[in-house]
Amino acid sequence: MSIVGAIGAWFTDPASWTGPSGIPTRLLQHVGISAVSLLIAIAIAMPAGLWIGHTRRGVRLAIALANLGRAVPSLAAIGIVVPLTAMLDPELGFKVYPTVIAMVLLAIPPILVNSYVGVAGVDADLVESARGMGLREGQILATVEVPLALPAIVAGLRSATVQVIATATLGAIYGLGALGSFIVEGAAQFRGEGKLFGGVVLVALLALVAEGSMALAQRRLTSPGLRLGSR
Amino acid sequence: MIDWAWLGDHLGAIAERAGQHLWLTAIALAVGFALSFLLALWSLRRPRVYFVVSGLAGILYTIPSYAMFAAFVAITGLSIFTAEIPLVLYTFVIFIRNIVVGLEAVPADVIEAADAMGLTARQRLVRVEIPLAVPLVIAGLRLAGVSTIGLVTITSILGDSFGGLGFFIRERPFFATEVLVGAVGSIALALTADAAFAALQRRLTPWTATRTPIWVDPREALPLGGPG
């Protein structure tokens, strides 16, 4: 039970909670960098996914992109960027840019595909009757398709969130900072178990809380008539 | 840009790492599938058990892989178990769900017909239910295969004896040729494994000549992304 003791000691040590490498700072870094990457990915992927779902154009491209995106390991996504960005800026081009670029790139496929699948799955009769009622294409998308596709869209955001938080953790290997740094430092230092496992606990908690709240949002946003139990 | 001389000198090492990559993946898939199959049979038609088992598997799948591997270093040292235990744990969510959904999607009248023909529950499972579940089970293999090949790269944090092609991504981060070999190599492995499992599915179940994209799960969108 010495590991539990070591974790407890690390969490109760005031030094763990202060300064630029304290828990609050690194938690904020992790959340901030994840949120920024997600927002960039949403801005790129969601309009594209909705458009593909509505027009059914570019479906093959979306599927190919999703398959490729799934096949790219996050470590490969970070690593492949390092030699390029490090030439531009030896400091940030190694520590920050590669991980953030990888986070954005890896978050795009799940958001894009789920937006597309959600919109494409809307009953064609509904879209047709909306068109018959005189709604413009943009209105059909906004008032009929998106509300019905919302559960799928949020499911995509949920996958992307988990992926982004995991990739930010991995970025610590390259010196990104954030919560993964506790694991890197704990592993490197003598009797660092408390710090290492403290980092593991924090990272796992953050991922679970994010996942849980997205799952909750997904349920809330699902129209009652569409919920599983009612079918 | 690309150092062809380095590439030529290291073809043997690259092949060796690719072999290691596949080997680490194969162990994880085999063990993960066997354990998932047992857990799936146990959860079958027991909604509460399924809820707990798939819930726990889902929680494990949410934990970032770097944290998971690092945690096992402190428990099982720098051994093969430290690489394989997380890899196996991460396959659970995909395998268990696809096996259970696949088996439960067998139409009720098919089961009734099997019962009426006098098949025992075991015969029915082996001769009727499992064959009909094959497409979804292989869809699970495709997803788990691709995800495991990606995760194997992260075992490179356990030292030079692990990592498969991921070793090349991390050995010299600024040497573009070597990083590219690791990154493109592991992507190529993943795409090849995916295509191979898809071909296997067409061989085993030629009647499902479907073009449905594999992530369209009958219940909810399958996990794209994942622990990284």
Give the topology:
The complex is a heterodimer of chains A (about 230) and B (about 230).
Chain A: H1 2-12, H2 23-55, H3 59-71, H4 74-88, H5 92-95, H6 97-120, H7 124-132, H8 137-170, H9 180-188, H10 193-221
Helix pairs in contact in A: 1-10, 2-6, 2-8, 3-6, 4-6, 6-8, 7-8, 8-10, 9-10
Chain B: H1 4-9, H2 11-43, H3 47-62, H4 65-76, H5 80-104, H6 108-116, H7 121-154, H8 166-171, H9 176-204
Helix pairs in contact in B: 2-3, 2-5, 2-7, 2-9, 3-5, 4-5, 5-7, 6-7, 7-9
- Could you give a short account of the major beta sheet of chain B? none
The strand count of chain A comes to 0
Q: How many H/I helices of chain A?
A: 10
Number of strands of chain B: 0
Shape of chain A: elongated
Could you walk me through the main structural features you see in this protein, from its secondary elements to its overall organization?
The complex is a heterodimer of chains A (231) and B (228). Chain A is an all-alpha fold. Chain A has a single domain, classed as MetI-like fold (Orthogonal Bundle). Chain A is built from ten helices and no strands. In chain A, helix 2 (23-55) runs parallel beside helix 6, helix 2 (23-55) runs antiparallel to helix 8 and helix 4 packs across helix 6 (97-120). Chain B is elongated. Helix content of chain B is 75%, strand content 0%. Chain B has helices at 4-9, 11-43, 47-62, 65-76, 80-104, 108-116, 121-154, 166-171, 176-204. The longest helix of chain B has 34 residues, at 121-154. In chain B, helix 2 (11-43) packs antiparallel against helix 3 (47-62), helix 2 (11-43) packs antiparallel against helix 7 (121-154) and helix 3 (47-62) runs antiparallel to helix 5. Mean pLDDT of chain B is 87; it is low at 211-224. Chain B has a single domain, classed as MetI-like (MetI-like fold, Orthogonal Bundle), CATH 1.10.3720.10. Chain B has 228 residues and is mainly alpha-helical. The interface between A and B is large, with 59 and 52 residues.
